[in-house]
């Protein structure tokens, strides 16, 4: 009995592992599902959407594929655990056959994880390189200026600090700043802060990057491919009103963007220029927050005046 089990056991384990992996691969191939189908079937595995830029789509695909790979391995491992628990449960006082140094098994569980990590690493490196790629001739350059606690967006006539601002939008406590950008064009973002570290984040871009004060000018490039309105946020705890540092990204066609920029250059306000291209003048995805600074302050004017 013992001799028979020890001979068949490794083969049975190998067969089960092969079945799990083969089954998962076959299921994916036969169902003909794209990564996007899998993602939307499972609520994007925690991401807000497939994203609104070419770079976002690549990150999304990597995320969904990695999660499916992790779940496939997970299901295989859980299956083997439960199978062992049931198949080899204690049946008597006799000590079962002790198997060790099973070379095929040792090689299998050394080589398989190395292969999985190598594949994940390869695709991560490819996607990261693409997301960080900067082109020599971007179609638009926009300077992101962060300050406590709002944003300024400067449309530039070239790259780098020495370029000139041709149009600008700045937010206030009453008006959410709106960043209008075209789809289908390479947009270069150049970030700078007036005070502390902030972080430029549009959740739908599936991307954020820190905004530093001083001489560090973080740069990244994005090609947007979906028109719409998206809320943007500061993603770095930068002080008391950090949570109120919202802006709105409005993506429009190239032709509308050109008209918007022309209107801005002609001296119109951002709100007037938005109306000129048929867009709502104020933010629709977020609204200014009532900070109630005075009301919430223990340092009320009358207290200060009374010298208390
Ligand atoms: Cu901030």
TrEMBL record:
A Pfam family reported for this protein in Swiss-Prot or TrEMBL: COX2
Keywords: Copper, Electron transport, Membrane, Metal-binding, Respiratory chain, Translocase, Transmembrane, Transmembrane helix, Transport
Key word Ribosomal protein present: no
Principal place of residence: membrane
EC number per UniProt: 7.1.1.9
Membrane topology: Multi-pass membrane protein
Compositionally skewed regions (Polar residues) per UniProt: 286-302
Similarity comment: Belongs to the cytochrome c oxidase subunit 2 family.
UniProt protein name: cytochrome-c oxidase
Native source species: Actinoplanes lobatus
